[in-house]
Amino acid sequence: MGMKITRPQGTEDVTPKQIYKWHTVERMVRETAESFGFHETRIPTFESTDLFLRSVGETTDVVQKEMYTVKAKETEFTLRPEGTSGTIRSMLQNGMLNDALPQKVYYILSCFRHERPQAGRLREFHQFGVEMAGSTGPVSDAEIISLAKAILDRAGLKNIVLHINSIGCPTCRAAYHQALRAYFAPHQETLCETCQTRLEKNPMRILDCKSPVCGEIAKDAPLILDYLCEECKEHFEKLQSYLTAMGIEFTINPKIVRGLDYYTKTVFEFITTDIGAQGTVCGGGRYDGLIAQMGGKPTPAMGFAMGLERLLLTMERQGCEFEQPKTCDLYIAPMEERAIPLTMKLGQMLRISGYQVEYDLMSRGIKAQMKYANKIGASFVLVLGETELENGTANLKNMQTGEQTEIALDDTFEEKFDDIAIQGMFHDIVNDFEKECKQ
Ligand code: ATP
Ligand code: MG
After folding, report:
1. 183-186 LR contacts (CB < 8 Å, sep 24+)
2. How far, in Å, from the CA of 200 to the mean position of ligand 2?
3. Is the domain 330-427 a CATH 3.40.50.800 member?
4. Class of domain 16-169+229-317 (CATH, top level)
5. What does pLDDT average to over the chain?
6. What is the pLDDT of residues 92-113, one digit of tens each?
């Protein structure tokens, strides 16, 4: 009895005190995506489990270890571990690929993965992601990467390096898989259990294994870049020249394979060392085979996902700026019961005009009200007391300067806010109010 319930491991609360940072980040990613002509899409939080088996891939960590699968009334669902699968499913289901191409969408959503909770690794986390379907050429790869870069720049981040790689297409992949199998075969016994099955089914996955033992074995594994076909090679080289043309610095990292099976050709990550071991803030790439694999007509596509918790943490660590939350413009302090109706009416009118207005809801004395107004950071306090009501005046205090003005309630008190739109409003309100009182 009375035991407090706490939030599940690996989840986070965002309190009203912290939310402005999220609002800053959300506004920033939205505006940047819109400036590139991407539009927001929304998808369900859960999908049929089969969707993720087919798209993310059966030999990935996400599917093998991390999915939250629930059975509800005999039907099985999985909470989305990422946003691409659902977004592509939605594009297909809504016939979006029959419209003008490329289709360019973005999303901000929560993802669920049953991971071992640690710094930078949550069980519920948030992603901002973009997907672009319909374009094959390396120009769109550069476009997608520059969109991610634009966000990081706009956030004011430094020391984030861009790693790029190409993991080829099914043509080059076949020869590479053979080379990997030959390389790992002598180590079969020492690989982790998961990787032993991967060896046969999908040896490239071993390169993404988080186990230190597998990591050590994989150190000298053959590199995909040595196995690229002509087309993939040219694609990768053009991408590099476009990035260079835009002044976007990058490092070629032949070890990046990404954690999801659907990638082809270009893959990339933006990595920081400022937030500990889990420093990949953004990861993405091209996935030319996915749409056909999901039952659509073959359509090339590309995208990325940014971990918003990691982005925010990096911004905090680097002392980036966040937009300050809006605070109370006016606190109205009625000193007695008789002043309450006028207080409420003033509040109502000013709120409609777009001001943030608060007044006493706790039946507090004037001293306590002033203390509260101070605490919530009110810019002005309007005191309505007995004498004031009788004289048709009120006391307006500028909380920043401490300056107090006796203002007539038929005065254009709102001039203090530099707002012509509500000129004369007080006058009208007070007039109405007096009429009502006399009746
Ligand atoms: P990792 O190698 O770190 O496990 P991943 O390959 O699983 O990453 P993606 O599936 O590509 O990551 O997800 C894109 C981004 O989402 C990551 O780069 C990261 O910023 C963020 N992310 C992924 N998993 C988590 C998590 N469990 N907690 C917080 N952020 C995450
Ligand atoms: Mg992962």
Report:
1. 183/220, 183/221, 183/222, 184/217, 184/218, 184/221
2. 22
3. yes
4. alpha beta
5. 90
6. 999 999 999 999 999 999 999 9
Burial of 281 (0-12, 13-18, 19+ CB in 10 A): buried
pTM of the model: 0.89
- The single residue listed with the structure tokens 């038929």 is 410
Mutate which of 63, 310, 311, 314 to test ligand 1's pocket (most atoms within 8 Å of Cβ)? Answer: 310
Best mutation site among 278, 306, 309, 315 for ligand 1 pocket (most ligand atoms within 8 Å of CB): 278
Helix %, strand %, coil % of the chain (to 5): 45, 20, 35
- Residue nearest (by alpha carbon) to ligand 1 atom 25: 121
* Pocket of ligand 1, beta carbon within 6 A: 82, 113, 115, 121-122, 125, 127, 258-260, 278, 280-283, 305, 307, 309-310
For residues 98 and 81, give the distance between their C-alpha atoms in angstroms, rounded to a whole number.
Answer: 27
Say yes or no: do domains 16-169+229-317 and 330-427 share a fold.
no
Ligand 2 centroid distance, CA of 273 (Å): 17
pLDDT digits (tens, 9 = 90+) for 156-205: 999 999 999 999 998 998 899 999 999 999 999 999 998 998 898 889 98
Q: For residues 412 and 427, give the distance between their C-alpha atoms in angstroms, rounded to a whole number.
A: 7
- Domains of the chain, residue spans: 16-169+229-317, 330-427
Q: 95 Cβ partners below 8 Å, 6+ apart?
A: none
Locate 219 and state its tokens.
């150190």
